[in-house]
Amino acid sequence: MKKIVLSHNIPKEYYEEYVTDMQVAVPKEPLTAWTKEEAKEVIKDADIFICYHDFKMDQELIDSAENLEIVGNVGSGYDNVDWRYAKEKGIHVLNAPRSVMEATSEMTVALMMSVCRGVVQYDRELKRDLVMKRQLFFYRDMVLYGKTLGVIGMGRIGHMVARKAHGLGMKIIYSNQGAIPKEAEEELGGAQYMTAEEVLKNADVVTIHIPLMEETKHFINAEKLALMKKDAYLINASRGPIVEEAALLDALKNHVIKGAALDVQEFEPNVNPELAALDNIVMTPHCCTNVAEVRVEMIHELLQGVRTLLGGEKPYNLVC
């Protein structure tokens, strides 16, 4: 009988149909996670380990497992898992890339609308002043219709964001490891493939959708921010360290760019108080998939991949 360990004690009804023939180990208290020391002990004889983004599956933990075959990460990104080391040890790594697409792309557009149309700032001001004020000519915000969205990383989520933005009447330019098929570009109103630098120079809004790796840390730095239009906005709903926080803070304070919206932070779970104090930024707590129905879908997608792999076939969500 295979032993499967879950990093968090999630409701049993969300996963029980996939583990009927397995020994299951979870933390004692509902919705809590193993400590590092507890995990090192319980993983010793585990065949499968399932974790969430806030749980670090590092080399030390992997070395604690004697029989580990599969690590599953409940999410699209998997930078919390030392997947390269797992691969060296012959351990398969899976993720849940499809179930997050709609929720993450929807939240990205919500962030874009919030900062570009001043939704959050209007809300703060109205609740503070309790008086409805309007200016005859107001230059803070920007209408999205007819503007250009620059997508850096046209993968599953980047493409979904582009589709939604195209529906809002935005023009699409993008950078990627390679151009997407011509028919896909046509579906997006004639999306144009460019270098990342060209996207930054030409977009009114730039949205980041690349994975966090050593080579993408601080991909957006002071030099890249300086390429952007002075009235452009930056959206990051991927991973915090892709954007150099100090450089973004400087760019926002000195009006190098007009504004930013972040669902992720470089030093999570902590938030820079200087960044939070700015009026030209909208921030949410890494919550694109923080909806129960989405989290359940993510668990199902991941465990379906595990069952497929155990059955001797290659699942689509196999990372390595």
Description of the structure:
The protein is 34% helix and 15% strand. It has helices spanning 36-42, 59-64, 83-88, 101-116, 119-129, 156-167, 182-187, 196-202, 222-227, 245-253, 273-276, 292-310; strands at residues 2-6, 22-25, 48-51, 70-73, 92-94, 148-152, 171-175, 192-193, 205-208, 233-236, 259-262, 281-283. The strands form two sheets. Strands 8-7-6-9-10-11-12 form a seven-stranded parallel sheet, sandwiched between helices. The chain starts with a strand and ends in a 10-residue tail after the last helix. The mean pLDDT is 95.
Task: Please write out the topology.
Blueprint: E1 2-6, E2 22-25, H1 36-42, E3 48-51, H2 59-64, E4 70-73, H3 83-88, E5 92-94, H4 101-116, H5 119-129, E6 148-152, H6 156-167, E7 171-175, H7 182-187, E8 192-193, H8 196-202, E9 205-208, H9 222-227, E10 233-236, H10 245-253, E11 259-262, H11 273-276, E12 281-283, H12 292-310
Parallel strand pairs: 1-2, 1-3, 3-4, 4-5, 6-7, 6-9, 7-8, 9-10, 10-11, 11-12
Helix pairs in contact: 4-6
Find the count of extended strands (DSSP E, 2+ residues): 12
Helical residues, percent = 25-40%
Classify the beta-strand content into a percent band: 5-15%
> What is the SS-derived class?
alpha/beta
Distance between the termini: 24 Å
For the biggest sheet, the summary is: 7 strands, parallel
Return Rg in Å: 21 Å
Shape: globular
Low-confidence stretches: none
Question: Residue-averaged pLDDT, rounded?
Answer: 95
State the helix count. Answer: 12
Strand order of the largest sheet: 8-7-6-9-10-11-12
**Secondary-structure element sequence?**
EEHEHEHEHHEHEHEHEHEHEHEH
